[in-house]
Amino acid sequence: MSRSYRETLDALASAQKGAARSAPAYSRFVNRRLGRLLAAWAHSVGLTPNQVTGLSALATFVGIALLAALPPSWPLGVAVALLLALGYALDSADGQVARLTGTGSRAGEWLDHVVDATKISALPLALLVGLYRSDAAPESWLLVPLVHAVAGPVYFFGMILTEQMRAATGVRSTARVGGRAPWLRSVLGLPTDYGTLCLSFLLLGGGTLFLVVYSAIVAATVLVAAAAAVTWYRELARLGTSEAASA
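That's the CDP-alcohol phosphatidyltransferase family protein sequence above. Prediction below.
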């Protein structure tokens, strides 16, 4: 028996895993909810989780291609921001569809992470190409997307690898442990939120204004990635020691 759109939304609300309580505010309060609406639509038209992932990749990589091919402008910035935000919401929707239908798989999770890793690397490089081709920024500013092309993937890979190693040792992610939601941490995480990066392209036609905002996002990513790397390493070192002691 098929569900109505409203029934599907209600089912999604009860079928989802708990949201990371320390996740940045856009991802937690905006993107996940947009993803739920898109997941209900995808389920109503019979799309599989992998097909939703494919739509996410299509929207994201069209936006990235436009960023590399066309000179910066206000219309281009709006188009890129909307495409990236749509791709991000669909990235949330694919997992929600998988949990709703019980069709999640390791292959699907792998595909999702590969798409994420590709876009995180490709986005700053596309921006670099677009700025260079259009001569829209002094050469010194081109170092910013280069730094981002390193810091973004390192942060993402470190986070995913840490989660996998925690799971391998039976440790639950502290971000999902109960207690009062650390809303302040969510707000403070906005500068490193992928959703914030998507919306920053609304300023693409603003020249120096965009570059300053984008540079602030990159600087925050570098600082958070460095701090997180130290924390993750120490945590995993303790887990390794504990395992050795109990062997």
